[in-house]
Design brief:
Helix content: 40-55%
Shape: globular
Largest sheet: 2 strands, antiparallel
InterPro entries: ArsR-like_HTH, HTH_HxlR, WH-like_DNA-bd_sf, WH_DNA-bd_sf
Keywords: DNA-binding, Transcription, Transcription regulation
Domain HTH hxlR-type: 20-112
Strand order of the largest sheet: 1-2
Pfam families: HxlR
Number of strands: 2
Radius of gyration: 15 Å
Number of helices: 5
Distance between the termini: 42 Å
CATH class: Mainly Alpha
Oligomer: single chain
Number of domains: 1
CATH architecture: Orthogonal Bundle
Strand content: 5-15%
GO molecular function, one term: DNA binding
């Protein structure tokens, strides 16, 4: 895909030409560091330096690219102080991922058992 903007429902995304909302969401969330940045923002706004400090191994260029994606996708906004925070729909994603987290924990126990 040559379009460098964030995946959006209704547009072709990696692995799918349908533009289905789920496929766009999976493309966005499957990008390196996207879920980690959303996870770090779950407790409140953070600046870019704080995000870099919390994400060992994340380069500043990837940080800003991913933040652009997440802002373009309306999951994150930048406040007047330059900090990044989750939007309402970004916070809802955490709730939506809770069943997947529960499944992953059961799966982990099964593998350890």
């Amino acid at each position: 895909m040559t379009d460098r903007s964030a995946p959006r429902p209704g547009r072709a995304v990696r692995g799918s030409t349908t533009g289905r909302p789920l496929m766009a969401a999976m493309d966005l969330l499957g990008r390196r560091w996207a879920l980690r940045l959303l996870w770090e923002l779950r407790s409140g706004p953070l600046g870019a330096r704080a995000l870099l400090a919390r994400c060992d191994g994340l380069s500043s260029s990837v940080l800003y690219e991913r933040l652009r994606d997440l802002v373009d996708a309306a999951l994150v906004v930048q406040d007047d102080d330059g900090r990044y925070e989750l939007t309402d729909v970004g916070r809802e994603l955490g709730t939506a991922l809770q069943p997947l987290d529960a499944w992953a924990r059961r799966w982990s126990r099964e593998l350890d058992g």
